[in-house]
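Reviewers asked in the last cycle whether our approach scales beyond single polypeptides. To address this, we selected a multi-component target totalling 1098 residues and predicted its structure end to end. The input consisted of the following lines:
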Amino acid sequence: MVNKQGQTRLAQYYEYLNLEERRALEGEIVRKCLARNEQQCSFVEHRTYKIVYRRYASLFFLVGVDNGENELAILEFIHLLVETMDRHFGNVCELDIMFHLEKAHFMLEEMVMNGCIVETSKANILAPIQLMDKAS
Amino acid sequence: MGSQGGFGNSKEFLDLVKSIGEARSKAEEDRIVLHEIETLKRRIVEPDIPKRKMKEFIIRLVYVEMLGHDASFGYIHAVKMTHDDSLLLKRTGYLAVTLFLNEDHDLIILIVNTIQKDLKSDNYLVVCAALNAVCKLINEETIPAVLPQVVELLGHSKEAVRKKAIMALHRFYQRSPSSVTHLVSNFRKKLCDNDPGVMGATLCPLFDLIAVDANSYKDLVISFVSILKQVAERRLPKTYDYHQMPAPFIQIRLLKILALLGSGDRQASENMYTVVGDIFRKCDSTSNIGNAVLYECICCVSSIYPNPKLLEAAADVISRFLKSDSHNLKYMGIDALSRLIKISPEIAEQHQLAVIDCLEDPDDTLKRKTFELLYRMTKSSNVEVIVDRMIDYMISINDNHYKTEIASRCVELAEQFAPSNHWFIQTMNKVFEHAGDLVNIKVADNLMRLIAEGFGEDDDTADCQLRSSAVESYLRIIGEPKLPSAFLQVICWVLGEYGTAGGKYSASYITGKLCDVAEAHSSNDTVKAYAVTALMKVYAFEIAAGRKVDMLPECQSLIEELSASHSTDLQQRAYELQAVVTLDAHAVEIIMPSDASCEDIEVDKNLSFLDSYVERSLEQGAQPYIPENERSGMINISNFRSQDQHDTSTHTLRFEAYELPKTSAPPRISPVSLAPSTELVPVPEPSYPVEMHHVASVPSVSDTGSTELRLRLDGVQKKWGRPTYSSPASSSSDSTSHKAVNGVTQSDVSSTSTSRTRDSSYDSRSAQAEISSEKKKLAASLFGGPSKTEKRPSSTSHKVARSTSPAVEKSQGPKAVASSTTGVVSEKAAPLQQPPDLLDLGEPTVTSSASSVDPFKQLEGLLDPTQATSAANHGAVDNTKAADIMSMYSEFPPSGQSSVIANPFTTNAGDANLIPGLSTTNKTGHAKGPNPRDALEKDALVRQMGVTPMSQNPNLFKDLLG
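The resulting structure, written as structure tokens, was:
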């Protein structure tokens, strides 16, 4: 997750990269995506994989996938994530994610494991987070 | 909403987030983070930090790492936090640890213990948190430590736990397949779990397993089909619905699995036809997610055993994708087309123009995808057009990764389908010129071989033409700066071999050019070596032809310089050249026969030419030769091998002693006597220091590359040249016969057609038709479809290609307008296309967004007339404005904002706030409009926290979903 200025707002990797590699990778792909206009398609090839990205107001959501993945489905997965966050935070905005970084991560943890989409029911995704909220 | 109560964080944290949020540059952000690191280093080691505070520190550490700085000083605190009793703290601890550490980090060992304990917890949320960590942190060595517990959890009463346990096993499988081989049956069992979430998760490991070995899972086809059927029939809980589609992500994964299982298996495929057909019918083609499922259906259909009905349905969907205005759908359409084209090549024809549009689209992603499609549909009839296009594209891009890929594809296609050798050489020249350092060096060898062999048959004149055209093109290119080394080698070789052959160019001209090359690339020994050998050949041919050799002064100085070179190879070549030049015509002709690079060199293995010499020596009392094995009494086979090694390493130092001479020494070329040959043998690099022979071996030194290659490839089927050329039936031979008369026919046709077009060019419509007829031509040449016209346009004759009959042109009219006005349409289409992204909350998108377009435009016109008139970047501006306007109601009118900010988006937003009425009207159409009160509350809260929306980054407050 990156904002319009290319600043990272949330990052999750499913294959380990060290700090340097992350920095370089993020810089490269963010530059590529921010340079595109809204008519162009939401997919960018980068080396051996593809970036699927989607913009919401000030935030860009970028997902790197390998070649076998269904790009359109990933695009909708991003929307599902945003809808889920919207349901939890109510009118979610960049600042919500910044203040509740761990919660955004928890949601993502419920939805994606080992790089696969495992859960797409909003109720199931949010249940543990709501329980935790209640407990504390 | 409950989560927002006061944010539960300290002022410090809020300040940090605020300052990061407002940082305007990476440098500013870095400064903030570096300062934060200092603070944290100091604070985090203080004694008795309250737990809540500690959690905050950990999150701050996460920020530090996320923004690209090292936070390793705090890792241990994250590890400690995983021990905490509080669920929230524990989970935060686990989260931080998974973000910080890779699975081989030293600290992991401290966590494994905690994980083991937590896996046994009564609180299922704790178990879930631990399983999440298992998926990230357990490596091959630690798998046994948690495996039994994970397996036990597969039977847990909570579905969330079962789901995560399955994924943990999946992780173990990814890490080390052997660790879970005995547990694979669990995946099969869990497929039948009565919780859809567990079932959906199980599809992930099953997909991986089936991708490796589909045969072991054929029995599951029926189960997968019935699950898919149930999903499509909406038997799953409503919570899995997404935009009215029943569990689309599960459907997609099931389709992927079926594609694997049905591939090349007719029986399995037949079980799938009904359900896939049902999905084709049921899918909502107006939503993105519906199209995503449809696309997956096409992938599945093109992978399983073909079924005509499904292929038809797939073709329909593809044509809808391609006709769409959305670039995303076009992209998917092109991709789907390239999958389906393998099974039914004829479907490409109807999409010719759409494909051409995509090819010419400024969007690089789309263009690249289209090239992939073209690559897959190349045949001998369209290879010229496709490769030309690819080369143009290759030249236009900078990214080496893609350049290499495209260059190798060009080479591959050219080698496979080249219609003529001449074309092949020209194409290779272009590839070398622009990407020479990126292509495989073998390609250079092949090119030289082709030029040397020519058509390989009795057509000598054609060969000569080919060579002289190659020489000419190289003389033209040779002066260019920065030619890749591999290409220069080819150039030098060809010039040396054939530069003076036609009599068109004088030796001094060619040698001058070669000297230039050697000088211009003084740091590249390989190029210099090629150049020197080429020089030698040119001189040798001159001498053999009886002409006097006047070595150019620059050439002389070059030779002198090289004879003192540090490279022994260069030195040797220079000396050889000097030696050759002093010989008489007869000797030179034998050493260096003209145009003999692919003659087989005859080798007399028995060395019969030495017989007289031996006899004479014996008469003079010399000892007779005793074979080595007789002398030592050993049969030494390994000597042969060492001999070979010796050959290959002639240029390096040898550390072992030289072998004794033996009769089975590598055969040599006879420089003196032309003894009758007994055998044909590949010529290894000569390695014997016999004076006379040394000189004789000269030609083979330079030619080894090509000769050896040639010999090795003998008997291998030719990739290009006559056979393939003539085989693709009449179509391709037609095309060349046209080519032959191109010069004549083209000229008169073009004169008539241009005059006609000039007449009609008053009418803008016909101008468009003209453009599209060009496109159509291109399409025809690519697809060879029904619109194929008399003449195939070659790459350079696009203008000539307009010479279609008027009837065709006319019939193309309306269609052409449609396709070529996309530029105009897209302006309108852009707002149509984008708002759904932001607003798409379930209502029928087409109508609502269409109605919401106009107010924007009006608004825009009211606010900013100058911008409204500049139609060029309408689309983009429209969209961003739409987003801003939609969400800006939540902001307080920023005072003095317009003076601070140069950003057009935000100024627009500011304007929008002045007319709140208009923006609210836009919301009326939405089922779930944003709630202004929520936003205001939130805003007030944020202000209390000390973050003011009027500061630099008002975007922070923008609702993502508008």
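Chain B touches chain A through 116 residues (CB under 8 Å). We regard this as preliminary and will revisit it once experimental data from Aim 1 are available.
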